[in-house]
Amino acid sequence: MLEIVYGMFAIVEMVDVVRIPPHRFNTNLKDAALTILKEKYESMISTELGYVIMIIDADVNPVGKVVHGDGSTYHKTRFSMLTFYPNIQEIVEGEVVEVTEFGAFVRIGPTDALLHLSQIIDDFLNVDVKQGMIVASKSNRVLRIGSTVRARITAVSLKGGAMGKIGVTCRQPFLGAEEWIREDVKKAEQQRAKVEEAKQ
């Protein structure tokens, strides 16, 4: 398996034997193999590959094998696919797509990560599921459906569940909703300017 990584996204090359059934014999061999590979791999979640987003290309051996009692041909195929593998401690950006009583779901790549209430901000939070928003009592910071969020991945489980499970946190400096980060950067710059003035 060859892998070219771009952050959480990767182009992975693999080899498989593709079974071409007789009803696909009138189709171009590569097109038939691509269709079968897409049906087999796309939307798959595995602990080794993560989320398989799409099959990109395939190189099919034109010489296939025939198995007694089966009218299909079997072709060795090298193919590449785009995958998404969430790594613990990695910083991600996503959009809040749902607000619940226990937190918010943030769309990252092809899936949603849970941002639990305890991981949003160090403040008392009021949740309004109907309005799709979470409001911090002291700071008045708001997280709502549609907010762009920067978070750190804290938990990944690609076993069991149909979508896998990913947990994220915003309780670290310069994480959270986009506007919160802008405010924090502005405050940090002001503090640095005051320190520089004091030195002079």
Automatic annotation (TrEMBL):
EC main group: transferase
Matches recorded under Gene3D superfamilies: Nucleic acid-binding proteins, RNA polymerase Rpb7-like, N-terminal domain
Protein location: Cytoplasm
One GO CC term on file: cytoplasm
Recorded family membership: Belongs to the eukaryotic RPB7/RPC8 RNA polymerase subunit family.
Entry text on domains: Forms 2 domains with an elongated structure; Rpo4 packs into the hinge region between the 2 domains.
Protein's UniProt name: DNA-directed RNA polymerase subunit Rpo7
Organism: Candidatus Nitrosocaldus cavascurensis
Species classification: Archaea, Nitrososphaerota, Nitrososphaeria, Candidatus Nitrosocaldales, Candidatus Nitrosocaldaceae
